[in-house]
Amino acid sequence: MKQNKIGYLLKSGRSNRLVEGMPTEFLYGYPQLKKFGYDINLIGEEELSLEAEPSKIWKVINHITYVMVGVPGWAFWRIFCKRKVFDSFDVVFTTTNTFGICLSLLSRLRLIDCKVVFLAMGLIDLGTPKRWVSFYGWALKTTRVLALSNPDARNLSKTLARKVEYLPFGVDAQFWTPAKGNLQGGDFVLSIGSDRHRDYKTLIAAWRSDFPTLKIVTKLPVQTSKPNIEIISGDWHSQVISDAEIRDMYRNAKFVVLPIRNTFQPSGQSAALQAMACGKAVVITDFQGLWNRELMQDQKTCFLSGPPGDIAALQGAIAAALQNQEDVEKVGAESRCCIEINLNVNIMASCLMNEF
User: Fold this and answer.
1) CA separation (Å) from 221 to 122, 224, 336?
2) For the chain, what are the domain ranges?
3) Please, which domain of life does this record's source organism belong to (predicted)?
């Protein structure tokens, strides 16, 4: 039986994480499948010439197509011009919404012959225009669509009128590890992340003057005058703070708190699982996009802090965690076990095997 040739189209910068000693979860199973013997190669963003600056006319076209059908016209045009790149692959896998929709359009129009596997992330959310949903339903007709949370998979299945499977995202449990002999952590609580669904306004409002220092690591424009809150500028893309430094923050924190607005998107997923892999308890909003409620169980593998935007509930969950160190340590230890068994890069790669 002929082995499929697989192309991984990821955002630029991902190949840098193939260096030994770097966490691999944002390569979405690529290095693990490579080790399993799959014929698989990265497709660099530069191969599609997406770094080119669009002309003024193209900027207008780009805006119009995005507003009308949710597709950036410039990106589609550049990928269309470079579509021959995909001729050497039987399957192309991508995790970026722009890439996924553009490749799906090319497939739907029979301009590429490869199978497209699209790991959608917040493609259709609570406020997505209906005309986008309608167009996506047509464009994705020939594409295999996956989702990183059970709620998102159900939402996409309903709105696209087809089956969308849940792919369990997993982190690199060999990199994200607990500090040896220390699960208690230091004198601060950590919150981290820069996606648009982070609700730092609610977290800051909930942070009492008698709470310990809260460190917020984000590139979002967050401000506060509270003396026990420290804002640290940083995110995954800029790498102002290295992965090793982020791991040390997880290890040295009392616990991690992730305030999330209501969304079907699995916001906070990577930060939560990284912290859990480091043996840290996570206090997280009980929002619609919580990726797997069978594994993310309140008081067992995490602390659910109540509905989105509820200041009092979040404040109460934080206070309870600060007052019950023994429970925090138990949840942190159970969290690590959950990652080792259910939510790691090897599990994610194994689930992807069926798609290729």
Assistant:
1) 22, 10, 32
2) 5-167, 188-341
3) Bacteria
